[in-house]
Design goal:
The protein is mostly helical. The chain has a single domain, classed as Orthogonal Bundle (Tetracycline Repressor, domain 2), CATH 1.10.357.10. It contains 9 helices and no strands.
Length: 268
């Protein structure tokens, strides 16, 4: 029993050491001697557990896949919705890529150009997991109308792969803040519109009474336009204007002593 435990521990140490060397130096340059030395065992012990470097690389990929599978399925079970589980799984995956050399090596071995056996295994699994989750989200009405799960999955996995590659140049690509900004941009485009949160005020309907408006301040009286000046105010003591006498021959009230008929002759 003690021998079996020791053998299992040696095997695990070799996988971890190989992940660090593969991630640091690449598959082609990585040496089994360096790996065994980093694990603290002899070359003979390494060959006892792994017949070749390719076999060891596959074991590293499998160990990384076990970590990622557990991480992703744990998010699916714990999150409140399918899109929420994708957001959480992405955050945890980026954290694992930032902190765990085993996960980084597992992804990078899948697309290492110097490795003939590399088929993108872990990337293929991640792509299929994201696509299946989005298909299910569409069935359950979580995706916005017109959103195609396959197209979103392809774009999403391409972004994730690009972030993983860029992280080798600048570690900030794997930060939680960057992941948060990514989802703040993408999620409103994917999610179906839903009811407003309980804490948000409901929009006022046309029949709802409007709140009383504040009384407007009285504007200062503006002067009358120059084209139409106001007539001067009459003084209380001024007599009313005299009426103009009618023109000669015009009909009107007869003067005293004149004939009441219009055009009549005066007194003889």
């Amino acid at each position: 029993m003690v021998k079996q435990e020791r053998a299992a521990r040696t095997r695990e140490n070799l996988i971890r050491a190989a992940a660090e060397v593969f991630e640091r130096e690449g598959y082609a340059v990585a040496s089994l001697t360096v790996i065994s030395s980093q694990a603290g065992v002899s070359n003979g012990a390494l060959h006892f557990h792994f017949a070749s470097k390719e076999v060891l690389a596959r074991e590293v990929e499998q160990a990384a896949a076990d970590v990622v599978h557990k991480l992703a399925e744990g998010c699916r079970a714990a999150a409140g919705g399918l899109l929420a589980s994708l957001v959480e799984a992405t955050a945890r995956l980026l954290a694992a890529l930032a902190e765990d050399s085993l996960v980084r090596a597992g992804f990078r071995l899948g697309h290492d150009p110097s490795r003939q056996g590399g088929d993108g295994g872990l990337w293929r699994w991640w792509s299929a997991w994201v696509r299946d989750l989005l298909v299910q989200a569409q069935r359950e009405g979580e995706l916005a109308r017109g959103v195609a799960p396959a197209d979103v999955a392809a774009a999403f996995v391409a972004v994730t792969a690009g972030v993983e590659v860029l992280s080798g140049l600048e570690g900030g690509w794997l930060s939680p803040e960057r992941a948060g900004r990514f989802w703040a941009f993408l999620l409103p485009l994917l999610a179906a519109p839903g009811p407003p949160p309980a804490s948000a005020p409901a929009p006022a309907s046309p029949s709802s009474p409007l709140p009383p408006a504040a009384p407007p301040s009285s504007p200062a009286p503006s002067p009358p336009p120059a084209s139409s000046p106001a007539p001067p105010a009459a003084s209380p003591s001024s007599p009313p204007p005299a009426s103009s006498p009618p023109a000669p021959g015009a009909p009107g009230r007869s003067a005293p002593g004149e004939s009441g008929a219009p055009g009549g002759s005066g007194p003889a």
